[in-house]
Amino acid sequence: MNGYKNMWNLYLKGRLDLPLRDFRTVNCERLLQVIALEQNLSSAALKHVKHLLSGVFRYAIRTGALNGMNPVQAACIPRPRTGSETHADGLDQIQKMLDILPQPAKTIVAIAAFARLRKGELRALRPGDYDGTSLKIQRAAWRRYMTEPKGKRGIGTVPLIPTAARLLDEHLASVKPENFIFETVHGGPADLEGMVRKIIRPKLAEAGLPWYGLHAFRRGMATNLHELGIADVVIQAILRHSDVGVTR
Fold it and tell me: pTM for this one?
């Protein structure tokens, strides 16, 4: 139930400006297209949004508040943007980014590149989740809402390779955060999208380096870690695989 409430607050609240009786399939498709563009959601996430929206109309029809067909059922899911999902950053590209970026952006990139954390997991990290060698993943932050990490093995401990741990130590020593490892001046989870827009993209553009998004680091990570000489069992823990055979 909390998941649907968070989804409503994140993606649908304030967007349904038409009376239910005037809402048509074309309105639903346009709404999903806007959400897809603004939030850069995957097809799976858009299906969940559509399912929630369809449930609203099913309830309205069942309770007699609306007559007729459910306009959401016939709506098509828009194709998501694929640039960040098909590109995989290599070691050379990642190292160039780390050489250019200032703190805390370089630490965020290092953890995304070598620990495979999602944006929500990065934002929700607290100082107590770090023990010097690994990060305990216990929660995810979406805007101002806290949820559980995504997936069956979302909650767990992820080891940090020395490069990422060193940069994180450097960041923590310089800012001494109270609530979150990456936090705003008011103590809330950092705005990573704002950091990308104001710091990461401009810095990389000055150096002639492309930016494909934090999600691009998730692809090719196993190969990058293997090239660094990281043991298979450590890579397994980082990728949160159930069996090292899957990792290999």
Answer: 0.64
